[in-house]
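fyi for ur records
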Amino acid sequence: MSQETTYRHSSHPDKPGTGGKKRSTRRHRVLRRMRLNVAVFAALLILSAMGMGLVRWALLESAQYTGTALSRSYAAEELSNLTVYETLLSFGAVSVEQMLEEGSGAQRLSAWMEIYVQHLETVLGSGVVDPYLVLEGGVVVAANPWEGDADYDVRSTPWYQSALEGDGAVIFTNVYTDAIYNRPVITAAQLCGGSGAVLAFDVFPENLRFRLEAPGLSRTGSFFLCDRQGKLIYKQTAMEWSDEQVQSYLDTLIDCINAGQLEDSDDTVTDLDGVERTVYYTWMENGWLSIVTVPYSEVLEGFGRVTVAFSLIMGAFLLVLGVLTWRDVRVSTRMERTNETVRVLGNSYYALYRVDYGQSSYEMIKGSDYVRGRIPPTGGYEELLHTIGEVIEPEAYEEFVENFSPENIRQLVARRVRDFGGDFRRRFGETYRWVNVRVLFDESLAPGEVVLCFREVEEEKQRQLQEHKLLQDTLEVAQKNEAAKQTFFSSMSHDMRTPLNAIIGLSELAGQNARGMPRVQEYLDKIRVSSRQLLGLINDILDMSRMEQGQVTLNNSRLDLRACVEECAEPFRVQAQTEGKTLELSFDLRQVWVEADGFRIQQILNNLLSNAFKFTERGDRVALEVRQMDQGEYAKYQFVVADTGIGMSPEFLPHLFETYSRELRFSAKRAAGTGLGMPITKNLVAQMNGEITVNSRPGEGSTFTVVLPFARAEQEEEHQPAKPAAETVSLEGRHVLLAEDNEINMELATEILSMNGVKVTQAWNGREAVEQFQASEPFAFDAILMDMQMPEMDGCEAARRIRAMHRPDAGQVPILAVTANAFAEDIAATTAAGMNAHISKPIDFALLCRTLSSLMDKH
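which gave:
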């Protein structure tokens, strides 16, 4: 009844005086809101003033940081210059010491001095330094003799005495006036070993150069460089002062610096023109002082304009504030519409509860028919959970109670989790449908309260489940495709290498029986060359395909880097002799034992050397240089492959490392290839965390530089010296079990081994190899050659079964994987199966015999 009465009264016309009371109440509300806005504005004004102060402080701090960094930059640049002088001086001192030890006289030293001066001018420029040599007896050898140097007692000078006392170290003097030239000079000197001679440079400060035009030093800023005694060495300033005035000014600056009066960002000094300046400085390692000064007004340039702009903004803000205050009245009328919108949003939930997790109670804002018929609008939260649990699917009930218990809600609020929930299935009548439950937290709620709401999401959930099923099916298909690709690569490698092994091996056998038939021998040589070329193309294509799939892995192990490079270069020595070219190999290594993938290193070098030999003619030179760039646990090694061949055009260089890219220019011959060698090389270098660069000009040749980082490995302990390369490996009388499913490869391997005096027992698959080994007497076989892909049982499974046999030779007999599978994972699989080594097809029978001999000797 009260509600009906209220509605009825609200529809009547206003009584006399009612409208005036409403307007008065509205004015009071406006005034209250204006007082609040004015208070907010005053607070903002105070905060803004504090902000302006912080801005000024930040400007000064930033300027101090920038100025100090600039002074450090100039200091570092000068230290770099001094290091150059030290290096050049040390180089000259070593040369003088060597010549004096050889008994060279003043004439030869004078001739050397002229050459040395030319070198210095090439490096430093003309007239930057004046070098001279003081022999033990005081004789001065100079490229530019001084006037009166014969009467000048050099040995009494402080720099000469300091050089003698320096025990071979390079010394630098402070600035002093030279007695010969009567001009400021800095002398750098070094004792030449035990010869007693001293090599010295006179460095003239006016020749010092700094990159002061670079961003950092403003037009009105100044830079000064002082020696250990505070004397001016170099200056760059727009101020027109005499040297005496500058020195006096610097003395004042240095006194302030030493007294700690220029430590803070707002500390300043006044220069001779009355300009207030900030000072930034850096002490150098040799005691010199780098000083940068900037006018204080320049540091705070623009701050005044910011202050004026801020005042205008605050005035405009005050004007806007008045407008906004009056607009608040209109905004309040819109709040009801907002509330209506919130109610509409609330209607999307079929149940809403306000939960006091502290008191473990609930208030039902909106409930389902089922819940409203069983519990009151307010009550204990445990009763609510129990009632809701009656219609939740049994599998989700315990998880629901655990996640929406008062204790867990308290933890969520403590972590400021504003929205928490999930999906479960709820029974509606006789069917289950998906429902989403949320716990919503916001500071606008009463302390200790959250909102618990339920929404039906059957259609949305079914759509999500279908999408998840689709994604899962897609992932399974992708994984199957990936496995199929892996199988394809392995099969391609095996299927293409197997016939190549027969072609290369049979051509080598035919060559051994074609002596005296030069034409036949020539044809066989061409078959072998073409087969090797085809093998290289196959390897490039397979490697590039695997790289695009991200399937190339590195197998790092301890190796002798020098031996690895020499092994890679050896075939190219033979090629160089055959083609009338010169191959030069040089090393500069301090740590030869590293942790690296030797196969990938050789692959990189093989691609670069092959490329060099392709594009060079008879009489050209190919050089391979290996140099260690630094030392430590992780050191960088530089590999340089240079040739004097036809080179590459500038237009082609940006495309050199693109897949299938080849130089299409006129040349004496057309080089074969797929255009994959350089992309493969670049990918391998990148995978090894290295970098590759190239320099080339048409007609002058090309230079490839590869830098790779390697971890240092412990040096191998002393061992028996390796057999000379020319020594013939003898397998006479050995007994080998050969497992091979290909008839031609079986015939080829049997023939080669038999020619080397080996008794061969054949097995045509893995199962047969296991049975023959099991039926033999212990130690009847000296080694087992095992193919990987064979019918009935593959090589890895056969190797594992042999190793698992309970007989004395099962764990000792050497097992070699002889297979066309040449990928890293295939090699790893053979090792995991218990095999001792891996020989790839096409078989290098000389390497096979050496490997067999080495393994059989160990066992």
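The first strand starts at residue 129 and ends at 134. thats all i got for now
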